[in-house]
């Protein structure tokens, strides 16, 4: 399946399209299939794992989905001990993949593709969150991308997806990073928040839950702060598609998928149910993940409306994923391992 990368845009139409400011309503696709989960459970009792089954989440708000998938007990027919945990750093996640310790684990879609292309045998099971990146400002001086000209932007995660997505938006607006816009990098969103609130830079690029944490802290300190631009809305306007970026999902290693395809199917179905439940129970979902994420439950709960939860199998999401990879690769092919993954990467 081919997904043409954006190589040229009509500047006038682009400027008109990115005149969208503020946060548009979130579009969540319809969720299906708790009956599928029940069918899979019925066939599981004779194939229980002899060891604990751990679902590894990412250190961010989307992990509420995996926490709920475990807490729902939907996977107990497959293992008597099912756990939810969170990897703390990308180094830990990479090590877990390399050693085989991480069998079912949440990760960014591009990282999963990188593992796959480098021979790890990683398969992407699903995508659960579709855009959670925001440009925050103290005032209304930034309403459109072109307003960033001459601004000082604080951001983190250099050369990773948030950074590359921001570069794409600037490129499509005709702005050159480092020339038209000053970029100021720090190590993590956790570092960026206090630095920005102390007065550094004009605007700050944050993903959730850091954006929500910044808003809550600014309110406590009686400092102005607003969501100036939604990067996902801009990406959708520029690609001509819906405002959806397939950012984070569940992946599985090759050995586990080969030996336990029924568990993989059940886990995806549990994620579908977990998204539906989370959308209806933000506070309860936040409580489930709070301890492992080491974040206050109110921060997680308030961030959930801004992370576009929707669980689709990787196969269902393949067209969006390939377009996303095309655009990331236009800036840095190495981010996905130098090429788009083949069809075996997409489960479903």
UniProtKB/TrEMBL annotation:
A biological-process GO annotation: menaquinone biosynthetic process
InterPro entries for this protein: UCP027386_ABC_sbc_TM0202
Name of the featured protein: Sulfate ABC transporter substrate-binding protein
Species per Swiss-Prot/TrEMBL record: Cohaesibacter celericrescens
């Amino acid at each position: 399946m081919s997904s043409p990368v954006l190589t040229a845009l009509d500047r006038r139409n682009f400027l008109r399209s990115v005149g969208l400011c503020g946060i548009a309503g979130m579009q969540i696709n319809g969720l299906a299939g708790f009956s599928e989960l029940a069918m899979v459970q019925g066939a599981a009792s004779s194939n229980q794992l002899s060891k604990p089954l751990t679902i590894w989440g990412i250190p961010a708000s989307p992990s509420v989905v995996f926490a709920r998938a475990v807490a729902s007990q939907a996977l107990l027919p497959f293992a008597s001990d099912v756990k939810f945990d969170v990897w703390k750093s990308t180094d830990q996640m990479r090590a877990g993949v390399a050693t085989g310790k991480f069998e079912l684990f949440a990760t960014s879609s591009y990282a999963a593709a990188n593992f796959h292309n480098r021979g790890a045998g990683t398969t992407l099971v699903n995508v659960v969150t579709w855009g959670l990146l925001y440009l925050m400002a103290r005032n209304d001086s930034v309403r459109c991308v072109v307003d960033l000209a001459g601004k000082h932007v604080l951001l983190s995660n250099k050369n990773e997806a948030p950074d590359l997505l921001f570069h794409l938006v600037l490129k499509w607006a005709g702005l050159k990073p480092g020339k038209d816009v000053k970029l100021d990098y720090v190590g993590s969103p956790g570092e960026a928040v206090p630095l920005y609130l102390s007065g550094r830079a004009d605007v700050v690029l944050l993903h959730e839950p850091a954006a929500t944490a910044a808003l809550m802290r600014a309110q406590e300190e009686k400092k102005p702060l607003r969501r100036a631009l939604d990067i996902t809305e801009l990406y959708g306007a520029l690609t001509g598609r819906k405002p959806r970026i397939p950012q984070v999902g569940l992946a599985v290693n090759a050995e586990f998928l080969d030996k336990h395809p029924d568990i993989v199917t059940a886990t995806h179905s549990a994620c579908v149910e977990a998204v539906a439940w989370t959308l209806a129970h933000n506070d309860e979902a936040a409580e489930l993940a709070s301890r492992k994420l080491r974040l206050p439950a109110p921060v997680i709960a308030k961030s959930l409306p801004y992370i576009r939860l929707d669980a689709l199998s990787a196969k269902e999401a393949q067209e969006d994923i390939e377009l996303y990879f095309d655009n990331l690769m236009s800036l840095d092919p190495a981010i996905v391992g130098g090429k788009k993954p083949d069809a075996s990467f997409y489960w479903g």
